[in-house]
Each structure stands twice: as structure tokens, then as C-alpha cells.
Design goal:
heterotrimer, A alpha/beta (243), B alpha+beta (405), C alpha+beta (433), B: alpha+beta, 11 helices, 17% strand, elongated, C: 433 residues, alpha+beta, eleven-stranded mixed β-sheet
Chain lengths: 243, 405, 433
């Protein structure tokens, strides 16, 4: 589904050149639940931005669902993002001017769906996260956990194959965090690939697969009966210690 | 205040900065030129007629059909007018200062000059015209009754006009550096007319911009009311309305088969004459004020945005020890820099527009004093506009720095 | 999608209400002021007689003495009575008429109506067919009437209604000063703008309601309205035949280029004849301008109207720069929202369209305001006493142009901010602030 080969990302300003990712290799297959971990500044967010086609890669190849992302123009890329990917952010990123219903409506609008279809999906998504009764409320009227559930509803309303979550529990207390994680796990069980970026070991521990990024390089740490290492290069030793 | 960090911040908000500078520049350029044109128009409207305006009223009358002897009727009219209570003097004249309808002729110091140098307004009227108008003679004397000649419509060279009065403007133009009194001018053809008196100012009925505005002569030609049909009445300024009504009645009594075309005080004549100039001054004034208001609102809009955008940054600065005054001054200085850039560009633009207008619409050169006045005005405007947002910025508590958005 | 964008625009505009009001005001005032002045210009710059403006020609000759002649100078503005009468009599053009402005006192026969003065035109009979003057009743007087100094009149609809309460008055008698005239024709509303055939009287005036044969007006010595310029003092009466005075307008209709050339040749030979007879001294200097050229040459549009238009357009530019600035701040303030939308699948084009439509909505509302303000401005111009004020009305063209201007202006103003807005990178905005 998601395949990254030797992906690199360099930020250039007038003064400095920052290598956020170096030759990152990663493959995520259907049905996986992956936690991406790593210390602050290691390139986790850059990885997520590239995976979500929010940023362009500097080098390497990134194919999503068999499509080479680099060959797409903005319009095609937006369409792909809209149809295949759902986002959940640490700061929820709900649009404050829109009520819950309209917030969830946003990605569906860009898919040019019929009115009836959009309504059905929004209702379903809101029910799925248990907030159907509050669709006319505005984000500011909800608690953090509720806002994040709306964000998840928005992410899943379009039936994405890949759900990208950036520290989804970072702004939540532990009770709420557990609820959100439970929701993500349920989604994964129903077939959505979930990739979650976190620095919380407890959250990472719930994932079936851990990918550790240090200095822009990924190391895979498979959870389960056996610890399998793939694509391990320079960062192996660091990965081991954390794992 | 240190300009450098402010300027580098502005460079990071280049588009918005350029827009506000452009807005200030355009406003500056347009307002400078508009105010300049307004000033010119006001000066025009304020032009001295040279006559006793406060005391003069005018009745314009037209006969119906040809009169057997309009001269007789005119003499009766004048007698009747002078008998009206409150009237000091009355005269008939072919035209009225600022009255629009005009008689003009070219004059020269030599006979039958095909390229006569100037064109003058030619006043003709009954014997009391000078007294009635109340013009000031600065040299020589008024025309005497003996000098008057009967005038018949269309006549010219067959009349011998021995003496004339001219304005100071004509005297200085025709006999520069000399005493024009006693010298001659050729008005209509081959016979010379001696200059017997010089009038300080007597405005023309219409505008001859820009040089000819002071050129007028008075000829001793006894016209009747069919020539222009203007009765000028000098009266007690407090009784103008009453005198006008009584004068009209008196004229109707002399000969009822006539139409009163105009019945007005001289103030009305002046007002009517400068209608378009007044309208233009108003339009330009309203546009200028609107421009300043819109620009001020634009400054407020942008400053508010920047304050909002930098809320956290301001909080951090406050937490690091900046006083309210520091924050306030930061935004004031920022505005000062933007305004200055706008003013510099605006002044260049103002002079450019002025040059273009000079070529097209008889506008004079923009005087240098508009530079400091325009600059001061826009600086002031900018500071007033930015004060609100800057005070809001200064009121941001340092605690905001520790709060996540 | 348009509906969605309109909905979003509406929400956004309602949200920042004061900013929205400010932008609407800026566009509205800019458009209102510009449209007021452009409407005035539109009226002032009209072709007064579009169907004939290329075939009607104004004749200018120069019978002045050689003294004072400067090569290359313009001939006389108007014609002498001698030239005008001769050329009309020669009858070499498809139509020709001489004319001058005049005024006369009408003495109504209707009880309760006092005598009054009106503007009139003294002319010859081909004036009417030449200028396509529309008749409601009757028609022009005949060439015979011109020759016989006939006591006949053509009057305007307005005057007919005022005097008789009806327009069906052909054959009625009309007292002009002391003479009874027989009405032969009543004109429908006719007021060419500008008053091209005689710019000596008000170019944007109300026009005339009374037309009498030229010869009759001379007989009765009726009043002259316009400018008389005499260059030789050896005359007693400026209106006399042979007087060295210009005060008459002479128009000819020449229906083809060939005829125009032929008429020019005719004037040249006339000139030569006059020189031989000792009446003319100057070298041949003929102008035969058509209506369009004649109006251009006379710079008939008042300088103040042009100046006003320039100022109004300058005002619009400032209003636009202002709107660009405000839209930019408004859009950039929404960077977070834009970033989220981009992440959720909105393409750059979608964002661009969304923002541009928001600018367009401001333009439309501003256009309505601009229309109201233009209406107000024109009302003020009509009630200010400027000579052309009464002509200032919005017609359908200008109505559409107002909305067009508002929309184009605001969309133009929206282009840069919308472009900047759609450049907002999605990734940067997704991190917590």
C-alpha cells in the first residue's frame, strides 16, 4: 500500500540546509497498525507529511497504492489525498467557524459527492464516534477528547484506506487517550491501515509494528512473537536500546 | 527606537507592506493635487469684482417686440428706479461683472491693428454707471456727461469715442512702466480714445484664463435697456430684497410689456457664476476626505492583523521584560516607517500627476509647501489610525507566552 | 462546488463583519464615484446623430483680410451672412442649411399665461430633413417660405403642449413678439446631445422649442443668441448682409466621399471667385469637418468632467489597493483553515476558487452599494446647476457596467490575495502552534 524507497527530505533556507530524512525505506501493507516513534527532531513529522503528500520529497521514490506520488500534479495529489488518506492531528485542527457536521463535510465536498451521500456518511461517522447528537455544536463547545473524536470522524467519513495520526493523544489526558486509541484500533480491525506518530511508549506498545526514526533514518521493530529487523542500517543500535 | 529589526520584520511581510505603502502613496498624490485644485478654485471664487458688491442688486429686463424709442423708456426707467426708497444710484449697462454674457473687443495702441495684443471686456452704460458700481478710480477722473455718445445696436466706427476708462490691468499691459493716463487706445477702428481714468479693478463677465482676467474698459456710450437689459441698482444693503421688489414694480409701471429675466442681488450673480467651480471644489473635497478615511481604515485593518498574528510573540517580549510603552512604540514606529515610504513615493507621484495635469487642464505647478503639509497630514493620519491596534497590542498580557494556542 | 464556495464565502464574510463592511464600503465608494463620473462622460461623449455623423459637415471659410494672417491657422469659427446665404442658395450639397441661435418672446393667446422668452433657432428649411428632426405633426416649412420670408413656425412638442395643451396644432397661430406666425409643424422630443450643430450656445443645453425661417428673423430683427465676431470696424450693423462679422453656422450633408471631395472643390472655386471679386484676401483655407471631427476639434467635453473622471478613477485605484490589502490579511488570517482544507484534499485550485469567489461576493455587494451611490452622485449632479447636469442619468448600459466594474474590480483585487492564500503549505499548518 505505502512504499517508500530511499526517501529523503532537505529543507533549505538562505543559511542552512537541514536533512530531515535520509534514505528512508519503509513499506506498510494492508491491515497494518504501525507506530512511528523517535526522539524530538528525528523527522517523524516530516515522514508523516510526506506520507500524507502534504510535502514533497527531495529524493527517492514514494508510491501510494501503486501510484508514484512524484509524478502527480497538485490536483491529482489532492484527489489522491482526499480519497485514500484520513488525517488525525495532535491539535485536532477542526475549523472553528464550522459546526461538527460541516467540519466532517469538508473532505466530502472536495470529493464532489451528492448531497444525500454526504449526509449519510456524516451521520454514520458521527455515530461511529458517539457524537451524533452534537452535530450542530461548534468545536469550541467540546472537550479535547470529543474534538479528537470529531477529527477522527472527519478522517474516516471518506472511507480512507490509510489513516495518518500525528500524536493523536498528545493533548489528551490518559482516559481520553485510551478512548481514542480504542477507536483507532477498532478502525484498524475493520481494515483501515493506521500509521500513528507518537513519542508515547505506552501508545507505541499497543501497535503491532513499531518503526523507529532517528536522524531521519527508519528502523523497523516488529512486535509479536519474534523480533524481526528489516532495513536496519546505521541506526540499529539506537533502535534496539529504545525498543 | 531601533529601525533595523522593524524593517526586517516588514520585509518578511513584503506584500502587505507594499500594499499599504502604495495606498498611502496614491492617497498622498491624489489628495495633494485635489487640495491644490480646490485652493485654486477657491481663489477664483474669491476674486475681487472691484465693485460695491454688498450694495448692488440687478434686474435684467427684456422688451417684447421692438420699442419705438427704447432710449426714452430707459431714461424713465432710471428716474423711476432712483425714486425707489433705499436706492442710492441706478444705471443701465450692457453687461455685469461675473454675469457671463459679455461684450469684448480687441484694443491696440495703434490704429486698425490686425494683431491687436489684448482682448478686453467692454462695459457701456448710462452716465451713473461708475458711481453705481462703486469702482475705485486710482488715477484720473470719471467720464463726464458731455463725453457720452448715443449708442445704437451694432454700431462701431461711426461713433467717435473721445475718452475711456481702463482698468489697472489694461494700463500695465498696454503702457508698461508708464503712466497710461492721457495716452490713447484704439478700441473700434481708426479713432483714438484718450484714457481719462484708471480703475483699480473691474471684473469681466466671464473668465479669460489666466492672463486676461483683469482686462476691462468702460466706454461713454449711452445704451438703452435693449442692449443687455441690465439695470444695476446700488442701495442700502439692509434693504436689498425690498428694493428689488419695489424696483421691479417701478419698471413694470413705466412699461408693462416687458419680461423680467433676472432679479437678483450681486451675491446671487457671483454664486451663479462660480457654480461649477464650487461644485468641483466640493467633489474634490469629498473625494479627498473619503480617501483619507479609507486609507486610515486600511492602516487599521493591517495593523490589527499584525497585532493578532504576533500576539504570542508580543506576549513573549512582554515576558522577557518589554514594557507596554515598548510595544506601543514598536507599532507606532512601524507605522511611521510605512507612512514615510508611502509619502516619499506619494510626493513623486503627486508631482508627476501635477505635471500631467499642467499639460492637460491648465493647472499650475504644485507649490513646494504641499510637501511638508501633505507629509505631516499623512504621518498624523497613520499615527491616529495605528493607535487603536497598538494599544491593543500593548494590552496583551505576558502570560500569553506560557499558554498554548 | 460553486454553491459550497458561495456558502463558505457568506460564512466568512459574516464572521469578520466589520472587515467585510469596510471592504464593501471601499469597493462601493470607488465604484460609485467612478460610475458617476463615467456615466457623465458617457453622456457627454455621445454621438449626437450616429446615423449621420460622418455625412454632415460643418463649413468653415476665412474672409478676413490678409493682414494678421498666420499660415497654418484655423479659418473662422463661423460664417458671415454673405457666405452662408450664398452657399445655401448655390445648393451644391445633398442638403444645406444656415442657422443661428436666437431668442424671442412668445405672447400666448391662452388666458392666464404670461408672455415668456424662449430659446429659438433661425434657420432654413433643409435643417429638418438634414438633421433627421422627427415631426409629430405637419412638417418643415417650404423653400418658398424661406424665399418669401414666410410668417411660419415649427415648434417643439413641449411648447405646443404649454401653449395649447395639445400637439395637434398645425395651422394654429402663434404670436412671436408682435407678429403672428402660422404653425406648420410640431416636433417630437428632439434634443441631440451634445448640441452639435451650434456649440456657440450651450453645448449641453436644453435645445430649442421654436424654429423660424432665417429670412423672417432678419425681417423682424429677432434676438441673436451666440457669439458674434467682427474684424473690421467699417460696419454699422453686424447682422447686415456684407458685414465683416461671423455669427452663422453653415452645415451641409454630403452623402459620399466623392461628394465631399466635389463640395470641397466647389468651395475652393467659390474662394477663388471671392478673391477675384476682392472679397477674400487670404489663401484657400477650407475646413469641412464631419460631426465627430467637429466635436473633437471643439473639445466639447468640459475639462472639469474629465478631471473629475480622472480623480474618480484614482479614487477607485486606492479603494482597490485597500481591498487587496484587506483581503490579503483576511485570507492569511485563515492560513490554519486553508492548511487543514489542503490536508483534507482541497487542491490549490479549489482554494483559489473559494477565495476568489469570496472576493466576488464582496464585489457584488459592493456593486449594489456602488449603484446606489452612483444614483445618488448623479442625482447630486442633476441638482447641482452644472450646464450638463440634466443629462446625467444611468441607462441600462451603465447599469450593467456598474456591476461589471464592481465585479471585475473585486475579482482583480482578489487575485493576488487568493493566489497567496492558495500557496499556504498544508504541512506547516498542521503542527500545533
Amino acid at each position: 500500500m505505502l512504499h517508500m524507497k530511499d526517501v529523503s527530505k532537505v529543507y533549505r533556507t538562505e543559511m542552512v540546509e537541514t536533512h530531515a530524512l535520509r534514505d528512508l525505506n519503509l513499506e506498510v501493507r494492508a491491515g497494518e497498525f504501525v507506530a512511528v516513534t523517535g526522539p524530538s527532531g528525528s523527522g517523524k513529522t516530516t515522514f508523516l507529511n510526506i506520507a500524507g503528500m502534504l510535502e514533497e520529497l527531495t529524493g527517492g521514490v514514494y508510491t501510494l497504492d501503486g501510484v508514484d506520488v512524484k509524478s502527480l500534479d497538485d490536483k491529482a495529489r489532492s484527489k489522491l489525498r482526499n480519497e485514500k488518506i484520513g488525517f488525525v492531528f495532535q491539535s485536532f485542527n477542526l475549523i472553528p467557524d464550522l459546526n461538527l457536521f460541516d467540519n466532517i463535510d469538508v473532505p466530502l465536498r472536495y470529493r464532489r459527492m451528492s448531497r444525500g451521500e454526504r449526509h449519510k456518511r456524516i451521520e454514520t461517522a458521527l455515530e461511529r464516534v458517539g457524537l451524533a447528537s452534537r452535530k450542530k455544536h461548534y468545536p469550541a463547545e467540546l472537550s479535547g477528547g470529543q474534538q479528537q473524536r470529531v477529527a477522527i470522524a472527519r478522517a474516516i467519513a471518506g472511507n480512507p484506506t490509510l489513516l495518518l495520526a500525528d500524536e493523536p493523544t498528545g493533548n489528551l489526558d490518559s482516559q481520553m487517550a485510551r478512548e481514542v486509541m480504542q477507536l483507532l484500533e477498532e478502525l484498524n480491525e475493520q481494515g483501515t491501515i493506521v500509521v500513528i506518530v507518537t513519542h508515547d511508549p505506552e501508545i507505541a506498545a499497543r501497535a503491532r509494528r513499531n518503526v523507529h526514526i532517528v536522524d531521519g533514518v527508519a528502523a523497523d521493530v516488529e512486535r509479536g512473537p519474534a523480533l524481526v529487523q528489516k532495513d536496519v542500517k546505521k541506526a540499529f543500535s539506537t533502535a534496539e536500546t529504545i525498543a | 527606537m531601533d529601525f533595523i529589526p522593524i524593517i526586517s520584520t516588514l520585509r518578511r511581510h513584503r506584500t502587505a507592506s507594499i500594499l499599504i505603502i502604495l495606498e498611502i502613496a496614491f492617497t498622498c498624490a491624489i489628495v495633494c493635487n485635489a487640495v491644490f485644485v480646490i485652493r485654486q478654485r477657491l481663489a477664483l471664487m474669491d476674486r475681487d469684482s472691484g465693485i460695491a458688491e454688498a450694495e448692488i442688486v440687478r434686474i435684467q429686463i427684456a422688451g417684447i417686440g421692438k420699442k419705438a424709442d427704447p432710449g426714452v423708456v430707459t431714461r424713465q426707467d432710471l428716474e423711476a428706479l432712483k425714486a425707489v426708497s433705499g436706492v442710492k444710484d441706478a444705471a443701465v449697462t450692457n453687461m455685469v461683472p461675473f454675469g457671463n454674457s459679455s461684450w469684448n473687443t480687441s484694443i491696440s495702441t495703434i490704429p486698425d491693428d490686425p494683431s491687436a495684443p489684448i482682448n478686453v471686456a467692454t462695459y457701456m452704460g448710462s452716465r451713473d454707471l461708475i458711481e453705481t458700481l462703486g469702482v475705485k478710480l486710482i488715477a484720473g477722473r470719471d467720464l463726464t456727461p458731455e463725453e457720452y455718445v448715443e449708442y445704437s445696436n451694432g454700431g462701431g466706427s461711426n461713433l467717435h469715442i473721445a475718452s475711456i476708462l481702463i482698468t489697472k490691468g489694461v494700463a500695465e499691459r498696454m503702457y508698461p512702466g508708464q503712466n497710461a493716463l492721457g495716452k490713447v487706445l484704439y478700441v473700434w477702428g481708426k479713432e483714438p480714445s484718450t484714457i481719462v481714468g484708471i480703475i483699480d479693478t473691474l471684473a469681466r463677465p466671464n473668465d479669460f484664463q489666466p492672463t486676461g482676467m483683469t482686462y476691462a474698459i468702460v466706454m461713454p456710450l449711452d445704451v438703452d435697456f435693449t442692449v443687455g437689459g441690465n439695470y444695476l441698482i446700488r442701495c442700502d444693503p439692509a434693504r436689498k430684497a425690498e428694493v428689488l421688489a419695489a424696483a421691479e414694480a417701478a419698471l413694470k409701471k413705466v412699461d408693462p410689456v416687458r419680461l423680467v429675466m433676472k432679479r437678483q442681488t450681486f451675491a446671487d450673480v457671483r454664486k451663479e457664476h462660480f457654480t461649477e467651480d464650487r461644485a468641483m471644489a466640493w467633489v474634490l473635497g469629498i473625494v479627498s476626505i473619503s480617501l483619507l478615511v479609507i486609507t486610515a481604515l486600511g492602516v487599521i485593518g493591517l495593523a490589527s492583523f499584525w497585532v493578532q498574528q504576533r500576539t504570542r510573540q508580543i506576549g513573549v517580549r512582554r515576558a522577557l521584560g518589554a514594557t507596554r510603552g515598548d510595544i506601543l512604540r514598536y507599532f507606532q514606529t512601524e507605522n511611521f516607517i510605512l507612512a514615510t515610504a508611502g509619502i516619499v513615493l506619494g510626493m513623486i507621484l503627486a508631482y508627476g500627476i501635477n505635471l500631467w495635469l499642467m499639460g492637460k487642464y491648465q493647472v499650475e505647478r504644485l507649490p513646494m509647501e504641499f510637501l511638508p503639509i501633505g507629509a505631516g497630514l499623512l504621518w498624523f493620519l497613520g499615527q491616529v489610525a495605528v493607535l487603536g491596534p497598538a494599544l491593543r497590542a500593548a494590552a496583551i498580557p505576558p502570560a500569553i507566552a506560557t499558554r498554548s494556542v | 462546488m460553486l454553491g459550497y464556495y458561495l456558502d463558505l464565502a457568506w460564512r466568512s464574510l459574516r464572521r469578520n463583519f466589520s472587515l467585510t463592511v469596510l471592504m464593501v464600503l471601499a469597493i462601493g465608494f470607488g465604484v460609485g464615484a467612478s460610475m458617476t463620473m463615467l456615466t457623465v462622460m458617457h453622456v457627454l461623449a455621445k454621438d449626437p446623430i450616429p446615423q449621420k455623423s460622418k455625412v454632415l459637415h460643418y463649413v468653415q471659410l476665412d474672409p478676413r483680410p490678409l493682414r494678421g494672417y498666420t499660415p497654418g491657422e484655423e479659418p473662422l469659427e463661423q460664417s458671415t451672412r454673405q457666405d452662408a446665404e450664398t452657399l445655401v442658395r448655390e445648393h451644391r450639397a445633398d442638403h444645406q442649411a444656415l442657422m443661428t441661435g436666437g431668442y424671442a418672446t412668445i405672447v400666448p393667446s391662452k388666458a392666464g399665461l404670461d408672455p415668456f422668452n424662449i430659446d429659438a433657432r433661425w434657420t432654413s428649411n433643409e435643417f429638418f430633413p438634414m438633421f433627421d428632426v422627427p415631426f409629430l405633426k405637419g412638417g418643415p416649412w417650404s423653400a418658398q417660405d424661406d424665399a418669401n420670408h414666410g410668417r411660419v413656425a415649427v415648434i417643439g412638442k413641449e411648447l405646443a403642449e404649454k401653449l395649447f395643451g395639445s400637439t395637434d396644432v398645425v395651422g394654429f397661430s402663434l404670436r412671436v413678439e408682435t407678429t403672428e406666425m402660422r404653425i406648420v409643424g410640431v416636433l417630437d422630443n428632439w434634443q441631440p446631445i451634445p448640441h452639435f450643430y451650434d456649440l456657440m450656445t450651450e453645448a449641453y443645453g436644453q435645445g430649442e422649442q421654436l424654429y423660424l425661417p432665417w429670412t423672417t428673423s432678419i425681417d423682424l430683427d429677432l434676438g441673436h443668441n451666440g457669439s458674434t465676431n467682427c474684424w473690421d470696424s467699417k460696419h454699422d450693423d453686424s447682422k447686415a448682409l456684407g458685414a465683416p462679422c461671423e455669427w452663422i453656422q453653415l452645415w451641409v450633408e454630403l452623402d459620399s466621399d466623392a461628394k465631399e471631395v466635389a463640395y470641397h472643390d466647389f468651395l475652393a472655386s467659390y474662394w477663388a471667385d471671392q478673391v477675384r471679386a476682392g472679397h477674400y484676401e487670404r489663401p484657400v483655407n477650407i475646413r469641412l469637418r464631419n460631426v465627430t471631427d467637429y466635436l473633437d476639434y471643439n473639445k466639447v467635453i468640459p475639462a472639469d468632467a474629465k478631471l473629475g473622471t480622472v480623480v474618480a478613477l484614482g479614487f477607485l485605484i486606492v479603494c482597490l489597493v485597500n481591498t487587496i490589502g484587506l483581503l490579503l490579511t483576511k485570507f492569511l488570517r485563515r492560513s490554519a483553515e486553508i492548511g487543514v482544507r489542503r490536508a483534507l484534499g482541497a487542491s490549490r485550485v479549489s482554494i483559489f476558487m473559494q477565495l476568489l469567489i469570496e472576493a466576488g461576493v464582496i464585489g457584488l455587494v459592493g456593486g449594489v452599494l456602488g449603484l446606489l451611490l452612483a444614483g445618488l452622485g448623479l442625482w447630486a449632479i442633476r441638482h447641482g446647476v452644472s450646464a450638463y447636469g440634466h443629462l446625467a442619468h444611468l441607462d441600462v448600459t451603465m447599469l450593467a457596467a456598474t456591476f461589471g466594474l464592481a465585479l471585475v474590480s473585486s475579482v482583480l483585487a482578489g487575485l493576488l490575495p487568493a493566489w497567496r492564500g492558495c500557496q499556504v503549505a498544508p504541512a506547516l499548518q498542521l503542527k500545533s502552534h
